[in-house]
Amino acid sequence: MAHIVVLGAGTGGMAGAYEIREALNKTEHKITLINEREEFQFVPSNPWVAVGWRDEKETTIPIKKYVNKKGIDFIAARVDEIKPEENQLLLNTGATVDYDYLVIATGPDLAFDQIPGAGPKGFTQSVCTVSHAKECYEDVKQLMANPGPVIVGAFQGSSCFGPAYEYAFILEKALRDKKIRDRVPMTYVTSEPYIGHLGLGGVGDSKSMLESDLRNHSIKWICNANVTKVEDGTMFVDEFNEQKELIKQHELPFNHSMLIPPFRGVPAVANVPNLCNPKGFVIVDEYQRSPTFKNIYSAGVCIAIPPVEDTPVPTGTPKTGYMIESMMTAITENLAHAVKGEEPSKKGSLSAICLADMGDTGAAFVAIPQIPPRNVTWFKKGKWVHYAKVAFEKYFMYKMKKGTSEPIYEKYTLKALGIERLKEDESDNR
Fold first, then answer.
1. Is 358 contained in some domain?
2. Residue 314 to residues 69, 157, 263, 267: CA-CA distances in angstroms?
3. How high does pLDDT run on average in the chain?
4. Less Cβ crowding at N or C end of the chain, within 10 Å?
């Protein structure tokens, strides 16, 4: 019997545990899911939580209650050390967990400390976790009572720009609803070289469309922005040109600010020699497997993917939801081979589907694969995206409660659109 441990119960880890359970014989193999928190969080809903449009109870569910029903063990604890030579995990409770195969899906560590004064413990808010989003909402309520300048965006080194754009437009709509938008100047500050870059070199017409939307909503922007420090009510920003030359230094006043932080690997993962790159992200091969430790797989935000291009201010490459699901499906297939003593053969398509809410409208893109060059790419806007995002939230929460990773109707609907989780076998094209 093989023991597969999945570390992390986010949108990748919890869904992946279900998928692995479905693929492996329940009587022959054991699956354990480990997560520091007892609740699953649907992170894409956090921008709504941050303005009071969602309650925490609507976007979280208890993990143990649902995974246990599917024959998956659950441990609510933090992993403090990974010992790959011993195939063992040390938990903060003092307990140890042995594994035959380890799937790392921890998500990132939030590196607020890289910018003085950044983060909820400093002077900027965050929507990266539900607790951060709740704190952000408390600050938004203060903004409503005392309107003034707002800064939204992403710090240098960030690799997740979509939620920043979402939050900017959602907050703008919330301010309009309160009829105080005219008293709140808004500035979008981002490390991206241009609006709509998204860490992906742009997707379709994302540049022109998002620039137009920012203009139409009276939101100014600063690109190639490096935030040097944040003080109470003031953000200090260096702006660079394409030649990486400093062209302007800004001192921006604010009553409220929310910037996505840089990401890095969580300590327990980052500290394993020869597992990660210098930023603590797990190095994987095309089969989502560690080249050094053949029984360790990884997926999601915690894996190492190089930036798509050199930019004047550092930007990372995002790992969107469907891309992560693609990685997990590849891991599941390869684990099914591994427990039989066979070599891995499946590769994720790394296709991306992104639905971004913009308050009363939305933007969507499909990129196949997510990292250029691409076979398919498009970017669309419309009210339908707003409703699609709401529907997807309910649908994904349903999947996590039901314990299935990809219902058959989802699979064939996406297939009809040319979107599949796994790459075709190369032999099929010969």
1. no
2. 44, 5, 12, 22
3. 94
4. C
Reported confidence tier of residue 415, pLDDT bands at 50, 70, 90: confident
**Is residue 345 situated within a structural domain?**
no
| Residue closest to 42 by CA, chosen among 63, 21, 22 | 63
164 in any annotated domain: yes
pLDDT band at 170 (very low <50, low <70, confident <90, very high): very high
CA distances in angstroms from 318 to 2, 158, 163, 258, 294, listed in the order given: 33, 9, 11, 18, 25
Considering the domain boundaries, does residue 117 fall inside one? yes
d(CA 60, CA 52): 15
Domain range for residue 244? 112-263
State mean pLDDT over 341-354: 90
Query: In this structure, what token pair is assigned to residue 366?
Result: 């499909």
The SS3 assignment for 41 reads: strand
The number of domains in the chain is: 1
Amino acid at 209: M
CB–CB of 280/269 below 8 Å?
yes
User: Tell me, what CATH number does 178's domain have?
Assistant: 3.50.50.60
CA-based torsion, 166, 7, 396, 347: positive or negative: positive
pLDDT (tens digit per residue) in 289-315: 999 999 999 999 999 999 999 999 999
| Catalytic center residues | 160, 354
